Amino acid sequence: MDQLLRNFFLFLSNNRTLTKLAKSYGFKFGAGRFVAGETIEQASTKIKQMNEDGFAVTVDHLGEFIDNEAEAKAAVEECIHAINVFAEEGLDAELSLKLTSIGLDISQELVMNNMRFILNAAKKHGLIVTIDMEDFSRAEQTLQIFKELRSEYKNVGTVLQAYLYRVEADIEDLNAYDPYLRLVKGAYKESEQVAFPNKQDVDENYRRIIKQNLLQGNYTAIATHDEAIIDFVKKCEKEFRIPREQFEFQMLYGIRIDLQNELIAADYKVRVYVPYGKDWFGYNMRRLAERPANVMFVLRGIIKQ
Ligand code: FDA
C-alpha cells in the first residue's frame, strides 16, 4: 500500500498542469507544513528564529519545470533578492536551487548565464549556492554544469543521490574539483535501470558514499532524517577521526525537529533546508511520497480551509 501511495505522489509531483494550477491557486492544502511562506520576507522571520536556536539554513525559492525565459529571469531576480535580504538581515543562510527553475530545460547558455548572475551576487556576501539534483534525465547535464562552474567559482556546491548506481563513480570523478557536496538518498521516481529499487540497497549505498566522501577529505553535508545513517556518521567521525569542521547534518524544514534539536544539543552543525514560494506542489508531493502518513497533515489543512 505504501509503495502504491509513494508512486502515486511521485506521479503527481511530476504533473505540470497540477503544478501550474497549485501556483495560481495559492498557498493551500497544508503547504505551510513543509514550506516557510510565500515570500522571502515571511520566511526570513522563521529563519531568524532558527538562527537564534543555533541552526544554519539553506533557502530554496521553490520552482521547477520552467519553460520560458521570462519566468526563468523572474526566478533569478528572486534568488538575488533573497541573497540581499540575507545580507540586510544578517541571516546565517545560504541558497539552494533547481536548475530547471532558471532555464535548464530552455538552453544551456541561459542556465549558465543565470547561474553566473546568482553566483556573483552570492560571492559578494560569501554565500554558497548548492545546485539541487533533479531526476536522472538531468543528472549528467547538472554535473557537467557543476564542474564547469566549480572551476570558476569556489561558492558552488551540488547534490548526489545514493539511489543511483552511478553515484560512487561520480564521487570519485568530482574529487578533483574539491567539491562541496550534499549527499541524499534521492527523491524521484527512477527506473531499475539507473537506481536501486530496494530501500535497503539505497541505505547501504548511502553509507558507502558518505564514508567515501569523508575519507577523500571533502566537506560533506549529510542530508537525511534517518537516525541509523546519522549514527553511522557519528561512528565514522570516531573511527576515522573526522573533524567536525569537515561535515554537517542537514534536514528539511518541518521534518524531525526533535532530531534537529538533539544534534544541535550535541554540538553538531545542523543546516535546515527552508523552501519558500508559490511553486510548492511538486516539493510537497515528494514529501508525501517519502512518508505517506504525512497525508493526514494535508487532509487537516484542507478541512481547515
Ligand atoms: P528515509 O526516507 O529513510 O526516512 C528516514 C526517517 O525520516 C523516516 O522514518 C521518517 O521518520 C523521517 N522522514 C523522512 N522523510 C520524511 C517526510 N517527508 N516527512 C516526515 N518524516 C520524514 N533529494 C533529491 O533527489 N535531490 C535533492 O537535491 C535533494 N535535496 C535535499 C536536501 C536536503 C537538505 C534534504 C534533507 C533532503 C533532500 N532530498 C533531495 C530528499 C532526499 O533525497 C530524501 O528523499 C529525503 O531526505 C528522505 O530520505 P531520508 O534520508 O530522510 O530517509
Automatic annotation (TrEMBL):
InterPro entries linked to this entry: FAD-linked_oxidoreductase-like, PRODH_bac_arc, Proline_DH_dom, Proline_oxidase
This protein's record includes keyword Oxidoreductase: yes
Residue positions binding substrate: 98, 286-287
Coiled coil stretches, renumbered: none
Enzyme Commission identifier(s): 1.5.5.2
Enzymatic reactions: L-proline + a quinone = (S)-1-pyrroline-5-carboxylate + a quinol + H(+)
Sites where the protein binds FAD: 133, 161, 185-187, 199, 224-225
Record flagged with keyword Iron: no
Cofactor: FAD
Assigned keywords, A-Z: FAD, Flavoprotein, Nucleotide-binding, Oxidoreductase, Proline metabolism
Domain called Proline dehydrogenase: residue spans: 45-298
Domain of life: Bacteria
Note on cofactor: Binds 1 FAD per subunit.
First-tier enzyme category under EC: oxidoreductase
GO molecular function: nucleotide binding; proline dehydrogenase activity
Pathway this chain belongs to: Amino-acid degradation; L-proline degradation into L-glutamate; L-glutamate from L-proline: step 1/2
UniProt-listed GO biological process terms: L-proline catabolic process to L-glutamate
Protein name: proline dehydrogenase
Organism in which the protein naturally occurs: Virgibacillus massiliensis
